[in-house]
Write a structure and sequence with these properties.
Helices cover 30% and strands 4% of the residues. It is mainly α and 139 residues long.
């Protein structure tokens, strides 16, 4: 009678056998090499989801839209909140630099509310522009 040596539960197990990489079979895709982490981008730039460098504002928001067109540095959320709460006196227009139309909104009480409603819709859908005619895209 031969008995196999029993493993002692207090002793660490031997290292598990390592599996050697099998050569790829014909027609199978080659294994992906491990990806190297991206180096930090230069100041004023960030990485798009596809890995391309894009210019960014100091807060990390992109300076260009998905088509490469420049966008405003003003916040769309701030403009929407200003329009909602203080739109009747045109505060959102002062915020984006449109002082002349902001004063006109004060005198007309936001176009009796119609102008404010149109501006709010334009801000929410992303078609409102600042003084330099750059769209407010970044929330």
């Amino acid at each position: 009678m031969s008995t196999a040596p029993e493993s002692d539960p207090n002793q660490p197990d031997a290292a598990p056998p390592t599996a050697e990489a099998a050569p790829p079979t014909e027609g199978a895709p080659a294994p992906m090499p491990p990806q190297q982490p991206l180096a930090p981008p230069p100041p004023g730039y960030g990485y798009a989801p596809n890995g391309a460098e894009i210019p960014v504002f100091a807060n990390g928001k992109p300076r260009v839209d998905e088509y490469g067109n420049p966008v405003s540095d003003k916040s769309r959320l701030a403009a929407a909140l200003l329009c909602w709460f203080l739109g009747i006196i045109g505060v959102h227009r002062f915020y984006v630099g449109k002082v002349g139309t902001g004063i006109a909104m004060i005198f007309t009480l936001g176009g009796l509310g119609i102008w404010v409603l149109i501006d709010l819709i334009m801000i929410l859908v992303g078609s409102f522009k600042d003084k330099q005619e750059l769209p407010l895209i970044n929330w």
